[in-house]
Amino acid sequence: MHDHTPVTTPTLPLAQDPDRLSRRLQEIPQEPGVYLMKDTPDRSLSAVCAQRNRLLYIGKSKKLRSRVRSYFREEQKHSPRIQLMVRQVSEIEFIVTDTEAEALALEANLVKQHQPHFNVLLKDDKKYPYLCITWSEDYPRIFITRKRPMGNRKDKYYGPYVDVKLLRNTLDIVKGIFPQRQRPQPLFKDRTCLNYDLGKCPGVCQQLIAPETYRQTMQKIAMVFQGRTGELVDMLTAQMQQAAADLRFETAAKLRDKIAGIKSLNADQKVSLPDDTISRDAIALAAKDKHCCIQLFPMRGGKLVGRLGFNADPQSGTVGEILQRVLEEHYQNADSVEIPAEILVQQELPDAEMLADYLSARKGCKVSIIVPQRQSKAELIEMVARNAQYELERMAKEGERNLQALQDLANILDLPALPDRLEGYDISHIQGAHAVASQVVFIDGLPAKQHYRHYKIENPEVKPGHSDDFASLAEVIRRRFRKFVEDPKLQRHGNPDFPDLVIIDGGKGQLSAVVSVLQTINLMAELPVISLAKQREEIFRPGESAPLATAPEQPGVQLLRRLRDEAHRFAVSFHRQQRSEIMKRSHLDEIPGLGFGRQKQLLGHFRSIDYIRAATPQQLAEVNGIGPHLAQSIYNYFHPEAE
Q1: I need a labelling partner for 331 at 20 to 30 A (CA). Which of 74, 233, 245, 566 fits?
Q2: Among positive and negative, which fits the CA dihedral 382, 388, 393, 396?
Q3: Distance of CA 140 to the CA centre of its chain
Q4: Which residues does 428 contact at the CB level (< 8 Å), separation at least 6?
Q5: CA angle 77, 80, 85 (to 5 degrees)
Q6: pLDDT at 92 over 60
């Protein structure tokens, strides 16, 4: 593998400098590899940000020069997205690889590392859930999540699944077949919970099962979500027969019940192909306007074992390019045993040969990528495309409802344009105690939970027995927009982190407190703000004593209510969490020599104050950071009679 990095950084886009473009193209070889397109760094930004913003796109090709040259040919019909990118390219770097499959793997790693703007294809809107198995833990957990694969690399994600109900049903059946860990944290310190008595858990909390044995069980569960149920049934059948031959009839009966449960997963399966010896995936998409829905049907043993869904930007490429990128991202996160022998695609892929070679190398045998033209395989692709079309129609209707709500809201508030980013704020406390605030964000009318934020109120005047929602809101707004004041060059209009509308939970008083802060920091002219009162759902604007004339059932008002209710829920949940943590530490704060760090170690080890109270000095001293002297002090605090 060879790396080529230019010495100088040009300042003009290559499209505006034909001579330099021609020279640069001649330097790029006709070999497999990866190309990196960069723009001119913005010197007004910090050095770190400038370096990050330079990388526009990372691609791969079996003939680097031909692929890169194609971007700059006038007769080439590129999508608006690619046209915009080409106009910004000021430098092209390349890395030559020995094979096309190696280029694909390298591109995947570089995209994950740098995440260039124009490589973004799949939308992370958390519409579809994943199933996660935490292999990074000694006793792995299994759960459903809507977060894209992230966190520890050892953890395994399956999905995203379109049919949430079917996924939950499958997980419930699997939990009934294989006893497994039920809780993220043990319920009791020194004994098992009811799940162990019911046979739902093998006693993970008390380590009644060895980690190696438990992981073997989880590997069997993973086979279900890999579509390898037939292989799993064969394995369990062999174990059952061996147990019966060894006269271990109770074990054989348990294995028989597991086999019956696994077979019930696909008992109602209607979709099938006659040649059930080949594993295959079928992928197709449907696109319109701003929406693109992709569906992938994995067929194992002739039966459909799941239905995966992806959302993409329809402007990100042709049908073939979008399908290619979805398949690349999907199989990069899959184990080799999950890669099928045959992939049916709706249209020709631009780099089908490269992808097939890459997958064949990973699987250890030939993987074929086919565009079926007739008979059952073509009918399967048509069915996948039809399902993608139905999903597209549902998404379009949902988008239309949100669009109507945003249009109605813009009309109510006389906004110059549709508000894209809405932010809602609320305060939660009990008579001033443990006061916190919430910031929730809706984008395009939908919750964007990755942008939610909590605040702990720092105002010393807000304390138990003395609450001040006005001062609390003023503090939160000042902290939220402080960076736009401290850095006057920071872009506001068009900045995805700058809201188009701020909604305060409350009446005229709360609104006045926020307006006063915005005027002080000179943001009032650029940041529309309103409040929504709870009792009559009245909307107040700055400087107006009377609420706006609206009907409770207007789409725009309903959108505001959803955001306000979400801000309230988020604030209350955080307040309860803080109150619970403080109550845990209320006793520990009174023990001399027991600071915050050691309190955290104690609670992490014993889980509750009750267990700390019941512990002996010797058990307390086992905690990291708690020596014999401090352990005796803790014990004496809870047992004054012992002194």
Answers
A1: 233
A2: negative
A3: 20
A4: 435, 436, 437, 438, 568, 571, 572, 574, 575
A5: 100
A6: yes
Residue 170, SS3 per DSSP: helix
Length of the chain: 643
pLDDT of residue 177: 85
Among the residue ranges 201-205, 374-378, 547-551, the one predicted with the least confidence is: 374-378
Q: Hey, what domains does the chain have and what are their CATH numbers? A: 2-119 (3.40.1440.10), 280-394 (3.30.420.10), 421-581 (3.30.420.340), 587-642 (1.10.150.20)
Which has the closest alpha carbon to 530: 414, 378, 401? 414
Question: Within 10 Å of residue 499's Cβ, how many Cβ atoms?
Answer: 25
**Sign of the alpha-carbon torsion through 232, 264, 138, 151:** positive
Q: Does the pLDDT at position 606 exceed 90?
A: no
Give me the residues paired with residue 345 across strands: 283
What's the per-residue H, E or C state across 492-518? CCCCCCCCCEEEEECCHHHHHHHHHHH
297: three-class secondary structure by DSSP: strand
Percent of the chain predicted with pLDDT > 70: 90
Q: Write down the pLDDT at residue 7.
A: 42
Poorest-pLDDT segment among 402-411, 414-423, 534-543: 534-543
- DSSP lists the bridge partners of residue 443 as 421, 446
Nearest to 20 by CA among 95, 96, 91, 94: 91
Report the pLDDT averaged over residues 115-134: 75
Give the β-pairing of 130-133 and 91-96: unpaired
Beta-sheet pairing, 55-61 with 33-38 = antiparallel
- Do residues 391 and 293 make contact, with C-beta atoms less than 8 angstroms apart? yes
| Least confident interval from 415-424, 437-446, 461-470, 509-518 | 461-470
Across 52-204, the runs of DSSP E, i.e. the strands, are 55-61, 91-96, 130-133, 142-145, 156-158
CB-based burial, 112-145: b 16+ in 10 Å, e otherwise? eeeebebbebbeeebbbbbbbbbbebebbbbeee
Report the chain's terminal Cα–Cα distance, integer Å: 72
pTM of the prediction?
Answer: 0.65
**Phi and psi torsions of 92, nearest 5°:** -130, 125
Range 616-620 contact pairs with CB under 8 angstroms and sequence separation of 24 or more: none
Residue 539 pLDDT = 93
CB-based burial of residue 329 (10 Å sphere; 0-12 exposed, 13-18 middle, 19+ buried)?
Answer: middle
What is the C-alpha separation between 605 and 603, in angstroms, rounded? 5
Count the neighbouring beta carbons within 10 Å of the beta carbon of residue 279.
Answer: 20
Of the given ranges (18-22, 52-56, 130-134, 616-620), which has the lowest mean pLDDT? 52-56
| DSSP H/E element including 287 | strand 280-288
Average pLDDT over residues 314-330: 88
Helix, strand, coil percent content, the chain, rounded in steps of 5: 45, 15, 35
CA dihedral of 579, 582, 587, 592, whole degrees rounded to 10: -170
pLDDT surpassing 50 at residue 17: yes
Tokens of 334: 């899959």
DSSP codes of every residue in 550-609: --TT-HHHHHHHHHHHHHHHHHHHHHHHHHHHHHHHHTGGGSTT--HHHHHHHHHHHSSH
Residue the block writes with tokens 């062999």: 238
Residues 133-187 have pLDDT tens digits of 999 999 999 998 877 666 677 888 888 888 888 888 888 888 888 888 988 888 7
